[in-house]
Here is the input.
Amino acid sequence: MFLMEGCQSTTNLGTDAQRPYQWEELSHHPAWVWHRHRADSALVHVKLPAHEPLHLRESRDLPFRFSLVLDLVVATLDVPDTDSLRVGGGLRQYQFTWTGTADPERDALEATFSFPLAEGRYRITHTLRDVHRGAQVSGAVLLDGWSEDAPVRCLAFDMQTGEPAWGGQLVGGHAAGLLVPPDLAQQMWWHAAIGPVDSFPSAPFLDRKPAEMRFPDAVEQQLPLPVDPHAEGLPPGDWTGWSLLQWDNAPGVHQWTLQGSRRHVVLPARRAHFPRMRDLDEMIRATRYIATRDEYKAMRESRNPKDALDRFWLQFAENPEEARMLIRNYYGRIHEANVHFSGLREGWSTDRGLVYVVFGHPDRTRRDRFGETWIYGEEGDVNALIYRFSTRPSGDDFNVYELERYPGFRSPWEAMVSSWRRGRIRKR
Here is the structure.
């Protein structure tokens, strides 16, 4: 399993551990929010597209219904009265049934489940099963509910829709709120923000390290305001005694810090359609990996950028259908990179995103405590291409894997870019 540690972060995986980034191949695409709601319990909010579960009916007179089951396996890593990690200790399992009738007006299915959780640090493996379809999707999350200022004790949400921050991210431009538990409600909080980042990682054969991303010193302070637990627009839950921080969620990344604490609640403010890429300017920026410098400049400066982008892709294909196939593959990879590799930067503009977009899914992925190894080709073959990504502290970024660059990567990189430009890329 691929584990990500951070504020309300999770990774959705398929059942094949060797191909963990095949987002498009999954039968279901749930989003998750984990929240330590009380000292003795936690909540998990789940959302998935309404059309994905298979709807069946027992007879003509009965409505179509979906039937889902959520399985949680909670492994204790650390508890307050111990001095060392106990990986896999204190294993507990919970199962929840989630059913409902078909509703053509509904775009998404949402549910919230509560389960016991004492103070501590945990690894939670979650499996969402579609009973009718006979399919499932699994993943895991590290949940730190130990410290009194642990970020997972607060819940961020979109004040325009009332929905929690799915995948730890909010929609940029919408007013946002952070629900603060009663014991933290009388303390001052500090806010800092980073605007959207307009930079790219260097090619794998160039030894150029990007500058670390750090939040500026916080200049805005706010004391949480009491919450009316019966007010509309709040996420599901009992908010008696809780308080609220509010801010204008401008695009970029926002950080809230409890005064006197080193723990941060970090919340990216993404585009409404994220992780997909639909904005024309963004789509042009994303061509930087395979466009020449002159092509890229011409598209950015064109008076008709849509026509310029169309001509860029059409030059690599024999007909419009082949061009559409290239576009689907390229921006499909960007979508998956955004799902799995996003931190302070969007996933497609990270080192792993760079390699994933150009080379596609590796044939084998290996992970250890120090990072990831991606293998293209047969393992052990002298012609296999191997990329190593090392985890490292990088300012305030919470999801950084740095590519170990090497001059020998120039030839395979240029060959793969050339393949894109000849229209020879197929989905992998």
User: Anything to note?
Assistant: The first helix runs from residue 280 to 285. The two ends are 21 Å apart (CA to CA). Helices lie at 280-285, 293-301, 305-314, 320-341, 351-359, 410-421. The CA atoms of residues 314 and 387 lie 31 Å apart.
